[in-house]
Design goal:
single chain, about 400 residues, alpha+beta, FAD/NAD(P)-binding domain, 19 strands, about 30% strand, binds flavin-adenine dinucleotide
């Protein structure tokens, strides 16, 4: 039997679930297709995957009626960016940028769970778990989605939010351009002797950045970017040896570590879909683009895609109207392309050959000299209009 919806969203990760919650909250009939289980409530130690959420992302989540638990998130008001050899330094402050804070750090699982809790409250949302798309075909007024559990769904628009390896993107015949940075990011959750304040810092070194993302209390999420081989060697270290390696390599401001809580490594690449839309089809989040995580923007721009698409759908008559989908593509491709280019240049400026690194130092010094430019940069990075008075 065929189930009809206004919109089907494939992928119930943070971006797909956020779009489902926003559109379900606005009264649309939504089918959310997720190949895994529904997320379970986070408890105990903090999960390894942490993301920053900026002002626009937080406003979008709030607009869906979703509440994030304060006890598992950490607001941050300063971003400190500096070079290991002390040649470049720039401190960004939320207050100077006209904002109360830059946003929060939150576990991916906490956000995803909160969104799914919201979906449970919305009568117009149906979640189909443990299933994935097999085929999809478009007709004039609807698109069909055949699932691997034997069900067939139909909707006026199908949205692919199924991550970097998107099945929906593949079924729609949309190719991607991609680039492998040949780097791994080792994420290490730690407990520290010193309290970790409301500052997130990033220290550039010729082999890759070292970053500290604050978590509530005396905890932090460290991100150690390095070559594949160097990270693979570090993965072999036991906790004591890893602690010593971190205390030696990371800036002294981190202080002593009292515990390594968890660790894992992730490959770093960028990827961009050739197009975000097809007939009654749209791609959002990592299904459409993957950016270098050094600026903590991948999830944010995915949520901004969802925000833009939701606004266009809410204002229009037919969620799959091609002209509206074109508007979505125009707005989001330009913004995402700019973010891909910015994170790519950061990577090459700070980890490239010496002349490039000197240029990187100069850009940090210039940012310090021109507070207005700094303020506008931070507002832009937060998804806010830097030309609007607030
Ligand atoms: C080391 C690292 C650090 C990062 N830090 C940050 C940060 O601080 N801030 C930030 O903004 N971003 C950050 N990012 C990026 C961020 O994690 C991603 O952009 C974000 O997770 C993308 O969310 P998504 O929902 O689009 O995709 P995903 O999180 O990949 O979710 C996809 C969902 O679709 C489901 N799915 C997959 N295939 C199918 C299928 N065939 N059928 C049905 N369901 C399917 C999956 O089970 C999953 O639930 C970081 C990334 C890395 C690698």
């Amino acid at each position: 039997m065929q189930q009809d919806h206004d919109i089907i969203i494939v992928g119930g990760g943070m971006v797909g679930a956020a779009l489902a919650a926003r559109l379900g909250h606005a009264g649309f009939s939504i089918g959310l297709v997720e190949r895994d289980d529904a997320p379970t409530a986070p408890s105990g130690d903090y999960d390894l995957r942490i993301s920053s959420l900026n002002a626009r992302s937080l406003a979008f989540i709030k607009a869906s009626g979703t509440a994030l638990p304060e006890e598992r998130s950490c607001p941050f008001r300063h971003i400190d960016v500096f070079n290991q050899d002390g040649s470049g330094h720039s401190l960004f402050s939320a207050e100077e940028s006209g904002m109360e804070d830059f946003g929060i750090f939150v576990e991916n699982l906490t956000l995803q769970y909160a969104l799914w809790q919201r979906l449970e409250q919305l009568p117009s949302v149906t979640c189909y778990t443990h299933c994935a798309p097999l085929t999809t075909i478009s007709a004039t007024s609807a698109r069909l989605l055949e699932l691997d559990n034997g069900k067939t769904l139909s909707a006026r628009l199908i949205v692919g939010a199924d991550g970097a390896q998107s099945t929906l993107r593949e079924l729609a015949g949309i190719s991607v351009s991609s680039y492998d940075y040949h780097q791994l990011a080792m994420i290490i959750n730690v407990e520290t002797e010193l309290p970790q304040q409301d500052v997130s810092w990033q220290c550039f070194t010729p082999t890759g950045p070292l970053a500290m993302l604050p978590l509530p209390g005396q905890r932090a999420s460290l991100v150690w970017y390095d070559s594949d081989d160097a990270i693979k060697d570090r993965e072999q270290l036991d906790d004591e040896a890893l602690k010593t390696a971190i205390e030696t390599a990371f800036p002294t401001r981190l202080g002593k570590l009292t515990r390594i809580v968890a660790r894992a490594s992730f490959p770093i690449k960028r990827q961009h879909a050739q197009r975000y839309i097809g007939k009654r089809l749209a791609l959002i989040g990592d299904a459409a683009h993957v950016v270098h995580p050094l600026a903590g923007q991948g999830l944010n721009i995915g949520l901004h895609d969802a925000d833009t698409l939701a606004e266009i759908i809410i204002q229009g008559r037919d969620p799959g109207d091609y002209v509206n989908l074109l508007r979505f593509e125009c707005q989001r491709r330009a913004a995402n392309q700019a973010m891909i280019a910015a994170t790519d240049s950061f990577h090459h400026l700070f980890t490239g050959a010496k002349p490039l690194r000197q240029l990187g130092d100069l850009s940090l010094q210039l940012a310090e000299r021109f507070p207005l430019a700094k303020r506008m940069m931070m507002q832009q990075a937060n998804g806010l209009n830097p030309f609007k008075r607030r």
